[in-house]
């Protein structure tokens, strides 16, 4: 398998990541407590914290916006979008790992954040190695 990403590979990946971001964001927008619980937030916090739905919905709106940006941005300009997405994913992971260190989220949240960050990093590196004209 080539280390270079072709234009069609880029397009498929961009659409898949964009669509997934929109679907996850939409789920979190309409079911913030359920998503928080599924991601490992302590049950008492997931069900009782009054600020939690707002905070989850803010993250959901960001996911939806980034997913939409990936879907509508032409390939040459989408490079910046992938950089911003990677930065936000890194910040999300840092927030989850800090929360894990303080006992606020389950270990599965920290592991999931690490996996998402690793996949986002891998994708960004591959996309940046693609030919400039994509």
Features of the shown structure:
134 residues, mainly alpha
Structural commentary:
- This protein is mainly alpha-helical and 134 residues long.
- It has one domain (2-129).
- Helices cover 81% and strands 0% of the residues.
- It has helices at residues 7-30, 32-38, 43-48, 52-72, 75-101, 107-129.
- The longest helix has 27 residues, at 75-101.
- It is globular, with a radius of gyration of 16 Å.
- The two termini are 18 Å apart.
Strand content: under 5%
Compute the average pLDDT: 82
Task: Write down the domain tally.
Answer: 1
The biggest sheet amounts to: none
Termini distance? 18 Å
Runs in which pLDDT lies below 50 for 5 or more consecutive residues are: none
The secondary-structure class comes to mainly alpha
**DSSP, total strands:** 0
| SSE string | HHHHHH
Radius of gyration: 16 Å
Mass-distribution shape:
globular
InterPro entries: DUF4267 (IPR025363)
Protein name: DUF4267 domain-containing protein
Pfam families: DUF4267 (PF14087)
Organism: Geodermatophilus amargosae
Outline the secondary-structure elements:
Layout: H1 7-30, H2 32-38, H3 43-48, H4 52-72, H5 75-101, H6 107-129
Helix pairs in contact: 1-2, 1-4, 2-4, 5-6
How would you summarize this macromolecular structure in one to three sentences?
The chain has 134 residues and is mostly helical. The protein has helices spanning 7-30, 32-38, 43-48, 52-72, 75-101, 107-129. It has one domain (2-129).
